[in-house]
Design a protein that fits this description.
heterodimer; A: 246 residues; mainly alpha; 10 helices; 0% strand; B: 259 residues; globular
Chain lengths: 246, 259
């Protein structure tokens, strides 16, 4: 019991260290540059305590739950030997975790406002909503597609850099073709898709697969799934912009 | 008491976000794999901890960091703050924004260090590489990448350059680095671009971009406000590969010296 307590305490201390830079930055700019007092210190203090506790719990749960389940499922699929089920799982995981992602919902909403103000779509609620939903589905589909391609790469052992460079070439090509107003949103959509729960799961899936397939190196083949998931949305969203017109 | 209510509200929202993931995992485990989950009790508790942890984390961010950070982003980009330092010039010059670039770099670095998904990937990378990659070094490299990225991105908003020139130039650098970098790090470096921008970084960076774009004449917050996140996911790739190259050069140098 006492040993466990010490482990927990050490983890708490680690989280404090992770948070220290933010505290320093905010204090420095607030006090020295903006020369303003910190408002309601007690609230800030309670909030920081919660963040430290939360981070500690999260990392605990990560090693107990998220990593093991990701790896055990990857191994089970590898043993089962059915590529189709594995790819279906990969697609569902990518699509399902993205479609309900709160930051994506927020970006899609903002993007709809941009499009309406720019006269790309009609400025009424219904049109804006269907445009936002379309954008969200496009991104979710592209992430599902990305995980499928990424898993296929692990199985086949394709080198990652050709695929990524091909993706970059597609992004450049699409940038030349797509309407200007979609570009900023498309570029950002690559970054918002990968949430705090998805990342550990997908990483564990990749590493688990690479270590249970003969001849694959978990370091070289296991990582890279997230890279695909942040590249394909850019291409697909620009395609969506072209389809909408403008 | 109020805090407890807020906590349950956040917990409920977190559970709703995670529910689709858990149901996908369960359906595939029960219907396709058809085997009991190994160490089911431990995994269940793990998920519970993750949920509680995320809820506490988000609530704390909402209470302490986001309001302050967003307010500071607004104040630093406010023309009255910018012009009080350089009151002689009537038009806004990009050099007047030095504090904004410094703030962008500092906030990019510090939020990335606290980013939970980056911690997850760094832990996994250290485990898989057998300790050859240090989790903390990896996180610091990524954070430096984000810092430079957001700083350059802020400069782009102030200067009003089109975003794709920067991103395409970044791609060219990544491609060149890929050719010379140790092969082991390449996939991890590509991944680190995607993991940097989540819970902590995105809201603060978005506030900075929005603040900048809405206070500078000729910039539209809705068009120019976007794009900072793209910078924050491109530059870490470059930074992580640079870190690998520096480490490799150092070890080679050491070997050479020993001989």
């Amino acid at each position: 019991m006492q040993a466990q307590f010490i482990v927990f305490f050490k983890a708490l201390l680690g989280s404090c260290k992770d948070l220290l830079p933010i505290i320093l930055v905010i204090a420095f700019f607030q006090i020295l540059i903006l020369q303003q007092p910190l408002p309601n210190l007690s609230d800030v203090f309670i909030g920081l305590m919660l963040v430290v506790l939360g981070l500690t719990f999260f990392i605990y749960g990560l090693e107990m739950g998220l990593f093991p389940i990701g790896e055990s499922m990857a191994q089970a699929f590898a043993r089962k030997g059915s590529i189709w089920w594995l790819l279906t799982f990969a697609f569902c995981l990518g699509f399902g975790t993205t479609v309900a992602e709160p930051s994506l919902i927020a970006v899609a909403k903002e993007a709809a406002v941009v499009a309406a103000n720019g006269g790309i779509i009609e400025n009424n609620e219904q049109v804006k909503e269907s445009y936002g939903d379309g954008l969200r589905l496009t991104v979710a589909f592209s992430v599902g597609f990305a995980i499928v391609i990424g898993v296929l790469r692990i199985i086949k052992g394709w080198p990652i850099h050709y695929l990524i460079m091909g993706g970059y070439a597609m992004v450049v090509l699409m940038t030349a073709l797509a309407p200007k107003w979609i570009i900023g949103i498309a570029y950002d959509s690559g970054g918002v898709t990968t949430s705090t729960i998805t990342v550990p799961l997908v990483t564990a899936l990749g590493v688990g697969l690479a270590s249970s397939i003969k001849g694959r190196n978990p370091m070289i083949d296991g990582f890279g799934l997230i890279a695909f998931a942040s590249l394909t949305p850019m291409i697909f969203v620009m395609a969506y912009g072209m389809a909408i017109g403008g | 008491m109020n805090l407890l209510l807020e906590f349950f509200a956040t917990l409920k929202a977190t559970v709703t976000d995670v529910l689709p993931i858990i149901s996908i995992l369960l359906v595939f485990q029960l219907v396709v794999i058809r085997k009991p989950i190994p160490k089911v009790k431990q995994v269940g508790f793990g998920f519970l901890y993750v949920l509680i942890g995320l809820a506490l984390f988000l609530l704390g961010l909402e209470k302490a960091l986001f309001p302050l950070g967003k307010m500071m982003a607004q104040q630093l980009t406010d023309p009255s703050f910018i012009l009080s330092e350089q009151s002689t010039s009537a038009a806004i010059n990009w050099t007047d924004y030095t504090w904004v670039y410094i703030f962008a770099a500092a906030i990019g670095f510090s939020t990335t260090i606290a980013e939970p998904s980056l911690i997850a990937v760094a832990l996994k990378a250290e485990e898989v590489s057998g300790g050859a990659i240090h989790a903390n070094n990896l996180r610091i490299s990524v954070a430096i990448g984000v810092a430079i990225g957001i700083s350059v991105g802020s400069f782009r908003i102030v200067a009003g350059h089109p975003i794709h020139y920067y991103i395409i130039a970044g791609y060219v650098v990544v491609v060149i680095q890929t050719m010379f970098c140790p092969k082991l790090i390449v996939p991890l470096a590509y991944d680190s671009g995607g993991v940097t921008t989540s819970t902590v970084t995105v809201p603060l960076v978005a506030a900075l971009g929005l603040g900048l774009a809405s206070t500078i004449e000729g910039r539209s917050p809705l068009i120019d406000g976007f794009g900072l996140i793209a910078f924050a996911s491109l530059f870490p790739i470059i930074a992580v590969m640079a870190y690998a190259q520096i480490t490799q050069t150092k070890t080679e140098h050491r070997k050479y010296k020993k001989r």
